[in-house]
Amino acid sequence: MLRRLLFLLLITLAVMFGVGCQRAEQNTKEKESPPTTIEQENEQGKEEAMWTFPLTGMPASEKTMQRVVAVMVNNYPTARPQSGLHKADIVYEVLAEGDITRLLAIYQSEQPDVIGPVRSARDYFIQLSNGFHALYVCHGWSPEAQRLLQSSSVDYVNGLFYDGTLFWRDRTRKSPHNSYISFENIKKGAEKNGYAFEEEVKPLPFFSNDLTRAVEATNIDVVYSKRSYAHVHYTYDGTKYVRSSGGEPTVDRETNTPIAVENVFVVEATHEVIDDYGRRHIDFTSSGKGYLFQKGTVQQVQWRNVDGRLLPYQDGVPLGFVPGKTWIQVVPNLQQVQYE
Question: Do domains 69-193 and 215-339 have the same CATH topology?
Answer without folding.
Answer: yes
